[in-house]
């Protein structure tokens, strides 16, 4: 299949590109600069131009940003839209977060509808942030699923950078479903809604400072930044980046993924466990915390809640996801310890 992948320079997109190419799909990926394209090209030099090519899209927040990129010969049949800001350096919530997330999503859908009639499926990287209602805390009485929507408001988006990010994912995904309903395009969509994504970094990193946001906590832990106090973990749920990549590809390869959300999940973790794993496996980092370090553990009743929660997904994974269940790798049920992070 001929596939357009947006944001090819990103952490998740790099793994998605890898799966696409290994499965024999031919890919055009968008990046912001030629330099970024060259770095990816270098990493895949054994693939010729027919298999991997690039389109430069400097800013997805611009109207019509994808108007050129959606053209291809042979034409695209699938589009995977991963590009969206995930960072907390937010000065202007609208400009830095909401616009690129929302206009980026509606923009690509408009461009496809207008100019790429062969596209059958658009897969959008959403997030668990678009599902969970953080005000409910761990909500032991509730099992989060694809039925749920984060009720975050425009006003709450302005409160802090984390809210801004969560709002950007919620509003962008909602805008995609609204587009589908109002515009009735000839393509179907699917969204992938992962919680915290960890795993090997295969995209080009200019420096450690440019580490993607979800892997940053592992970096900070290894740098000893949590020596005094380990910060709270947040949602405690994670998935391996390789499984997220597989999910993106399965979501267009499998026809029955049409117009569904997929809450992809491996299990739970705590920041304290990340540190324990680092110390156990890398003795040179044994001093990143000491006996007086506090924090970063599960809330008291969390393990019980989470075991229920994860068990639900494990038991019902296949029926929840139809054929997509087949992509769920046994290894994802293993603990974080067994991952090469
Ligand atoms: P990265 O920061 O590594 O990737 C983000 C990508 O989006 C980069 O390619 C970036 O380009 C591109 N991008 C951001 N803003 C713009 C813009 N204005 N114009 C053009 N390109 C832009 O993060 P991830 O790989 O983690 O994130 C990918 C997707 O996954 C995002 O949609 C994110 O919300 C979602 N997600 C991530 C999770 C995680 O834990 N990592 C969890 C749930 C969802 P450049 O590098 O050039 O800036």
Automatic annotation (TrEMBL):
Swiss-Prot/TrEMBL GO biological process terms: protein import into nucleus
Name the UniProt record assigns to this protein: Nuclear transport factor 2
Gene3D superfamilies in the cross-refs: NAD(P)-binding Rossmann-like Domain (3.40.50.720)
Alphabetized InterPro entries for the sequence: Epimerase_deHydtase, NAD(P)-bd_dom_sf, NAD(P)_dehydrat-like, NTF2-like_dom_sf, NTF2_dom, Nuclear_transport_factor_2_euk
GO cellular component: cytoplasm; nuclear envelope
Record organism: Lophiostoma macrostomum CBS 122681
GO molecular function: oxidoreductase activity, acting on the CH-OH group of donors, NAD or NADP as acceptor
Cell compartments where the protein resides: Cytoplasm
């Amino acid at each position: 299949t001929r596939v357009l992948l947006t944001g090819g320079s990103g952490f998740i997109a790099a793994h998605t590109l890898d799966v696409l190419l290994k499965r024999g799909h031919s890919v055009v990926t968008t990046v912001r600069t030629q330099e970024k394209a060259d770095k990816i090209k270098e990493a895949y030099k054994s693939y010729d131009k027919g298999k991997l090519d690039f389109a430069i899209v400097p800013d997805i927040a611009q109207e019509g940003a994808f108007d050129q990129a959606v053209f291809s010969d042979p034409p695209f049949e699938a589009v995977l839209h991963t590009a969206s800001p995930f960072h907390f350096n937010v000065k202007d919530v609208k400009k830095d977060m909401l616009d690129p997330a929302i206009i980026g999503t509606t923009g690509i859908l408009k461009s496809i509808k207008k100019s790429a009639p062969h596209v059958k499926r658009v897969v959008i990287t959403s997030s668990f942030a678009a599902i969970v209602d953080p005000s409910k805390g761990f909500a032991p009485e509730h099992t989060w699923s694809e039925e749920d929507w984060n009720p975050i408001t425009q006003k709450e988006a302005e409160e802090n950078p984390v809210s801004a990010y969560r709002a950007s994912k919620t509003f962008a995904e909602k805008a995609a479903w609204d587009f589908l309903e109002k515009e009735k395009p000839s393509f179907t969509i699917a969204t992938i809604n992962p919680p915290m994504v960890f795993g090997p970094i295969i995209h080009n990193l200019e420096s450690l400072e440019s580490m993607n946001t979800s892997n940053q906590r592992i970096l900070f832990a290894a740098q000893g930044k949590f020596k005094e106090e380990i910060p709270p973990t947040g949602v405690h749920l994670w998935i391996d980046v390789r499984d997220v990549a597989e999910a993106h590809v399965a979501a267009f390869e499998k026809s029955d993924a049409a117009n569904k959300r997929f809450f992809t999940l491996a299990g739970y973790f705590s920041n304290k466990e990340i540190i324990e794993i680092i110390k156990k496996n890398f003795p040179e980092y044994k001093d990143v915390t000491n006996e007086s370090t506090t924090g970063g553990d599960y809330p008291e009743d969390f393990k019980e809640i989470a075991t229920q929660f994860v068990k639900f997904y494990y038991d019902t994974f296949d029926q929840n996801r139809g054929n997509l269940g087949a992509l769920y790798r046994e290894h994802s049920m293993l603990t974080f310890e067994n991952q090469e992070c």
